[in-house]
Amino acid sequence: MLRLTGGANQIVTGLIMFEAFASWIVYDLADMQGTAPGAALHFFVMDVTKILVLLTLVIYVMGLLRAMLSPERVREFIRARSNVSARFMAVGLGAVTPFCSCSSIPLFIGFVEAGIPLGVTLSFLIASPMINEVAIIVLASVIGWQTTAIYVATGLTVAFVGGFVIERFRPERWVEEYVWKIHVGETQRAAPDVSLKGRHEYAASQVREIVGRIWKFVLIGVGVGALIHGYVPQDFVARIAGDGGILSVLGAVAIGVPLYSDAVGIIPIAEVLLGKGVPLGTVLAFMMAVTALSLPEMVILRKVVQWPLLGVFAGYLATAFVIVGLLFNALKGVI
Amino acid sequence: MKYVKVLGTGCANCKATVKLIEDVARAKGVAVNLEKVENIADIMAYGVMSTPSVVIDGRVVHAGGVPDRRKVDSWLGNGSS
Q1: What CATH number corresponds to the domain at position B7?
Q2: In terms of CA atoms, which chain B residue is nearest residue A102?
Q3: Does A105 contact B40 at a Cβ distance shorter than 8 Å?
Q4: Which domain holds residue B17?
Q5: ipTM of this model?
Q6: How many CB pairs under 8 A join A and B?
Q7: Which residue of A has its CA nearest to B52?
Q8: How many domains in chain B?
Q9: Which helix (H) or strand (E) holds A122?
Q10: pTM for the structure as a whole
C-alpha cells in the first residue's frame, strides 16, 4: 500500500511537470498570463505534451509486455466459453483489445463463424472503441481516478446490457447471407519474437501504428478544449448545459453522435467541460456518444449487416447514453 | 521467387503495406510475386482477423498494421531463396 501511494505521488509529480512546462513557455517566455489566448495556449501546450507523452509511454510498455491482445486470440478465448461467461469475456476483452475500425468486418465474421452469439459480438464492438487501457490511464491522469472508474464501469455496463437488448430483436435475420458461409481457415503462423530486441521492435511498431492513427484526434480534441477553456465564459456553459436535466443530456447525445473521436481525443474536452461546471452525467453521455457511435464504423459494418440492425444498434446506444447521463446527473451530490 | 500476399480490404494501411513491400523488393533486387487479396472470404480463409496481414509462401508472417521496414527486409531475405 505504501509503495502504491509512493508510485501515485510520483505520477502526480510527473504530471505537474507538464503544467510547469506550459507555464514556462506561455507565461514566462511569451508573457501571456491573464489573457484569454494565454489561457487557451497554456491548456493546449500542457495537454498536448501530457497526452502524447503518456500515450507513447503506455503503448510502449504494453507492447513490451505483449499485453495487447489480438482479435484472433480473443476469438479463441470466447468461443470456448458458456453463454454468460462469454459475455463477460467479450466486454472485458473488448476493453483491452485495441483494434482499428478497418478490422471490424473480419472481426465480426470471425466471431460469427466461431459460433459466438451475435449479442456477444455486439457487446465486444460496443466496448472496444469506448474503453481501452491506454485511454484509461490518460483519462485518470487528466480527470482523476474516481471519474475514470465511473466512466469505465458505466461503459462496460452499457456494452454488457447492449448484447442482451439487441438480441431481443432477433438480429440474425439482418446479417448478410454470405457471412454465414465464410469459412475461417487455420494457417500456420510465425511465432512471435519474444527476445528483448523483438519485444522492443514490436512495442515501437505499436507506438508508431497507434500514435500515428490517433494523434489527429488528440490535436483536435485538445484544440477544441483549449478554445472552450480560454474563450467560453463559465456562465455561458452553465446556461447551455443547464442543470443537467433531460434537455441538456439529450443535447449532449445529439451533438456527440455525429461527431467521432478516438477515446483519447475526447479526454481534453471532457476535462474542460467538467472544469466549466457541466454536470458529470452530461459529460459522460457526451463522451460515450462521441467514441462509441461513429458513422464510418456504421458504413463499414453495413457490409456484413443490414440497416435495421445498425438502426437498433445506434438506437440502443443513444438511449443508453441518455439514461447514463440522467442517472449520474440525478446522483449528483451523492457521489 | 517469393510469393507474397497482402490481405486487406483496401484500407489506407493495406495500400501502404503493398507499397512498402514493392519498395523493399525493388531496393534489394528480389523478385516477388505480389498479390493483393481484397475479398473478405479469401482473407478469412487465412484465419486472420486483423488487417493488413502479410502472407509469404503460404505462411502468415504479420497481422494487423503496416509492418516495420526492417521486418519486410528480413522476410525478403537476400534474394537467394
Answers
A1: 3.40.30.10
A2: B11
A3: yes
A4: 2-68
A5: 0.70
A6: 92
A7: A103
A8: 1
A9: helix A118-130
A10: 0.82
